[in-house]
Design goal:
With 137 residues, this protein is α/β, with parallel strands linked by helices. The chain has a single domain, classed as Nucleotidyltransferase, domain 5, CATH 3.30.420.140. It contains five helices and five strands, in the order βββαβαβααα. It has a five-stranded mixed sheet with strand order 3-2-1-4-5, with helices on both faces. α3 packs across α5. The protein is globular and about 35 Å long. The model has no long low-confidence stretch (mean pLDDT 88).
Length: 137
């Protein structure tokens, strides 16, 4: 069974998470500099079977869309053009960074690792994917 890949898109970095082949467990995959995201995805899709990409939807507390939505929409169009067989879905990402930081504070012992922004991004992507799996699969 193909995997589901999740993205926590940011202007500087993008966190990635992926399911196991049975689409039961969400695990952190990597954090990639956003300008290198397309190269990473191209290589990943070449070696792994992915049926869906879930991208965090950047919604503000007042329910308006964040400025991040424009580059995310551009990425979605590029994905749909290059990989028409891979479905794209969105998942509300509000509070995922806060939950990720709390999780890291509780589970990571070294202060230097707790301050690693790359870790926050891939944990946020994992939370996005966990929420998606819970309510959509």
């Amino acid at each position: 069974m193909p995997r589901v890949l999740a993205l926590d898109y940011g202007l500087a970095r993008t966190g990635l998470a992926v399911t196991d082949e049975l689409q039961i467990i969400a695990s952190p995959l990597d954090t990639v500099a956003t300008p290198k995201l397309w190269d990473f995805l191209t290589q990943y899709f070449a070696k792994e079977q992915v049926e869906k990409v879930v991208i965090g939807q950047a919604i503000r507390a007042d329910m308006s869309l964040s400025a991040l939505e424009k580059p995310i929409e551009a990425l979605i169009k590029q994905l749909q053009t290059q990989y028409p067989n891979i479905a794209i879905d969105r998942q509300d990402e509000r509070l995922t960074s806060i939950i990720a930081r709390q999780t890291i504070q509780q589970s990571v012992h070294k202060k230097s690792q707790r301050q690693d922004k790359n870790l926050v991004d891939k944990i946020s992507a994992t939370i996005i994917l966990q929420h998606y799996l819970k309510f959509n699969i």
